[in-house]
Write a structure and sequence with these properties.
The protein is α/β, with parallel strands linked by helices. It has 15 helices and 15 strands. The protein has a nine-stranded mixed β-sheet, with helices on one face. A six-stranded parallel β-sheet has the order 3-2-1-4-5-6, with helices on both faces. Strand 9 (300-306) and strand 10 form a beta hairpin. Helix 5 packs parallel to helix 6 and helix 6 (140-153) runs antiparallel to helix 15 (399-418). It is globular.
Length: 452
């Protein structure tokens, strides 16, 4: 059985601290072609992001795939996918899909955030390869459970952060890890999206897709094609209302998502997490408006403190969303990109977004010679995972990497909701100085739902 994610949580931390050269999650050199045997896929969630995953994975060049099962609580999505793959078994409840998986090799999970872990865990426990959209879980506890289950299963896993598979991030990681700007003791990550709790005027200015400041008192009749009870899944039940559905309206509600931090944080915090070989933060502190019991904020910031990792020094990583920006950005000390990651080293700075990066000050690096690439390019996250399902090759964002990244993102929200700087004990999975944070680390699923 391929090793893939067979790292315990403690083993991951030790491996991360000791890693040198290529980043922990850098994939091995992938073969030009994989064996011709077909990979039998089940897709849980086939609309929106799931629909794009379905289309992409069934049009890859190196691995033949066969769609044997499709599932969605949205009947319109399900019917649309069924017309494309009429031989595939249809399900509305993914729990029933797992009653018979004898012809399923791998599962693609593209549901809403609050059901990711509940669709992923049974697949792992049955020894199936899993591709799950970001973030892989709704909370810290689920992330730890999924990370451990993937390690025990030894299957090919991948979190859907497609930017991770593109060349720009790889070149940035190579520059940071080869010392282009010297030791890095601080990094700053900012995104301009401001969706969540805010005034009506700000919601209009920031082009939020819905404005809401509290849970609706009334209810509405769900669309005929939607199974609302199954959409709610493991979350506490509430009546249907248009402020939750369709997506991504739901992502601002704590019961269903975790706002911009867990959504875009999965993409943007990925870069410093990879380049700086981060593991678990020592402390986390968040800043923003008064926490709302129901709704994530449109704008906030958080500061993570990390200890030394091998030859890399202790560092801080600061996150900013919405109207919050780094001081050096506000002061005009760097190009004012709307979204970005800034690494501050002893010899200079590196600024990156999804598709480009620059060494700063530019005049200081006019004659800089880049290191030879040492992280192989990827054929793309989807094909990379499909090849791994057949050959046992590495993936770029396996759950052994994506699990701790997801935990860190969730901890920013935990610190925000708890209203205190957290001193984090990763081994015990608790904030040693803040027992009131426990309520935000996990939750009991609704009756009829279990992580197994």
């Amino acid at each position: 059985m391929p090793r893939h994610d067979r790292l315990t949580r403690r083993g991951f931390l030790a491996h991360s601290a000791a890693a040198t050269g290529a980043a922990l999650a850098a994939p091995a050199i992938l073969p030009a072609a994989a064996p011709s045997e077909t990979v039998n896929l089940a897709f849980i969630g086939v609309g929106g992001r799931g629909g794009r995953n379905l289309k992409t994975m069934t049009s890859q060049g190196h691995v033949d795939v066969n769609v044997v099962a499709i599932c969605d609580v949205n009947g319109a999505n399900l019917d649309r996918a069924a017309k494309m793959f009429p031989k595939a078994r249809k399900y509305v409840d993914f729990r029933k899909l797992f009653d018979d998986t004898s012809d399923i090799d791998a599962v693609v999970v593209s549901t809403t955030e609050h059901t990711h872990a509940f669709a992923t865990m049974p697949a792992l426990q049955l020894g199936k390869h899993v591709y799950c959209e970001k973030p892989i879980t709704h909370n810290v506890y689920e992330a730890r459970r999924v990370t451990e289950a993937a390690a025990a299963a030894g299957v090919a896993t991948q979190m859907g952060t497609q930017i991770h598979g593109m060349p720009n991030y790889r070149r940035v990681v190579e520059l940071i890890q080869s010392g282009a700007i010297g030791p890095v003791r601080e990094a700053h990550v900012w995104v301009s999206r401001a969706w969540g709790l805010q005034s009506k005027e700000d919601a209009e200015k920031h082009r939020d897709i819905v404005h809401v400041t509290d849970r609706p008192a009334g209810s509405m009749t769900p669309p005929d094609y939607l199974d609302w009870d199954l959409w709610i899944g493991p979350a506490p039940y509430r009546p249907y209302h248009e402020v939750y559905f369709p997506g991504p309206k739901w992502y601002r509600w704590w019961d269903f998502g975790n706002g911009t931090m867990s959504d875009l944080g999965s993409h943007w915090n990925d870069l410093p997490f990879w380049a700086l070989k981060l593991d678990s933060p020592k402390t986390i502190e968040a800043f923003g408006p008064e926490p709302h019991p129901e709704i994530a904020p449109a704008s906030m910031s958080a500061v993570y403190e990390y200890g030394p990792r091998g030859e890399m020094p202790a560092c801080t990583v600061s996150w900013y969303q919405g109207s919050h920006k780094p001081k050096i950005w506000r002061d005009g000390g760097i190009p004012q990109w709307g979204n970005g990651v800034l690494f501050v080293g002893e010899k200079g700075m590196l600024l990156s977004d999804y598709g480009k990066h620059v060494l700063l000050p530019e005049e200081d690096f006019a004659d800089f010679e880049r290191p030879a690439p040492f992280i192989p390019d990827s054929p793309g996250q989807h094909e990379e995972w499909l090849i791994a399902c057949k050959t046992g090759s590495a993936t770029g964002s396996p759950f052994s990497y994506a699990g701790p990244l997801t935990e860190a993102n969730h901890l920013g929200n935990v610190a925000f909701r708890a209203g205190r700087k957290l001193e984090w004990n990763a081994e015990e999975m608790r904030a040693t100085n803040c027992p009131e944070a426990d309520q935000f680390l996990k939750r009991e699923p609704r009756e009829g739902w279990s992580l197994g």
